[in-house]
Design goal:
Strand order of the largest sheet: 1-2
Distance between the termini: 11 Å
Radius of gyration: 22 Å
Structural class: mainly alpha
Number of helices: 16
CATH topology: Growth Hormone, Chain: A
CATH architecture: Up-down Bundle
Largest sheet: 2 strands, antiparallel
Length: about 475
Amino acid sequence: MTTATDQSASDARLPTPALLAFAMPGVCIGALAVALPVYLPHYYAGHFGLALPAIGLAFMAVRLIDTLIDPLLGVAMDRTRSRLGRYRPWLAAGAPVLMLAVYMLFNPQGGISYAYLVGWLLAYYIGASLIVLSHASWASVIASRYHERSRVFGAIQLVSIIGAAVALILPIAMARHDGSSGSGDVGAMGWFIFWAAPAGVALALARTPERIVPEQKGEKFTLKDYWEMVSRPDMRRIIIADFCLAMGPGWMAALYLFYFHDARGFTIADASKLLLIYVAAGVAGAAALSFAAIRLGKHRTLMGASTGYSLGLIALAFLPKGQFPLAALFMFVMGFLASGFPLLDRAMVADVGDAVRLEQGKHRVGLLYAMITTSQKVAGALSIGLSFVVLGWIGYQAKEGSVNSPAAIHGMELVYLIGPVFFVMLGGACFIGYKLDSRRHADIRAQLERRDAMVPEAAILEGLSGDQGVPVHIVEPI
């Protein structure tokens, strides 16, 4: 470790090249965000003939199991002390776990059983948890300022969108002349994610120093602490909103190919192009909504985005079938707005982490992000599990070559639309009357900086920022 002194908090802005390097783990996570829920269930149902309800229940069971792991990982990360830092070892550990699981899921050999699917899904979610949770927690301490956090999480969201876009280009490029797709596009997605994971993690570790914030000596985590975090009014709002804002798009993603192919009359290749437009719109959306959050506040921006998203989804159902230009326009608008959901939620969690540290003297950002990750996984479990069970109940058939009745297709349309609209609107409504705005957060940061300056042994601060006059210990990049 090295030591620096007299570095002003005004220097806390991470240079853009370093910020982009830090954000690179988002490439594989963004690619998985579309490949896993949109293409993998469709592939296992259509190509291997697994029943949709059984696939949905497999995803749901695994994600619910995984939700029990996230809080334990969050606590372990917050209590980690190592020469590499607090979150860096966990980020490094996640890459090989994720790589192995992705290889087995996207390149299955021979007959596929439900046990195979459940086992490797569980391995995947553990690896993804290690990367997502450590990366988000690390991001919260890289940027301590309210608006700088919007910038950092905006960069992560931007890189994730690029990863998702690359993954979506693969099935378009590999589509057969009849507009359908084969199993090769799923395997190609898997190989892209397989190599993106270690490359992104390596870049983040190599270019980014880590700050370990001060905390009081002798603190120990108890179940009471966990309950205190959950019962905080600000955190409770964020958790419920995050669940709803993940449930809506997750529900939509699970049924996306079925809806756009069977109900809207698009080929799989054209449906992939529309999804690419949706994802690519998030590049502009992440930047624009980050700017809007600086001007309007994170919670107000999120409320507006959720309302616009729901209206766009409703309008999509009334468009003429098979009309690509009109569908593309609405998919662009929805993707633009949806990019703000994870970006702004996570930035607000970091603000709550500062409030907790001021009130309790405890660094609980890892635990707070574990709660958010848990809520998203519960939402992901229920969105796939419930929607697929309902499709089975109405008689919809997903196997290649199956012919569905008009009643089954109409029922699938209703399932696709009602769930996302309801949950996204509810998620936005959670922030009516939200109090932790930029003014309140600025006051919290000022109090934290005054207190930290009085505790000389407390700070192991990031390489690019620190409190003036306080020794700054830097965990250097590898």
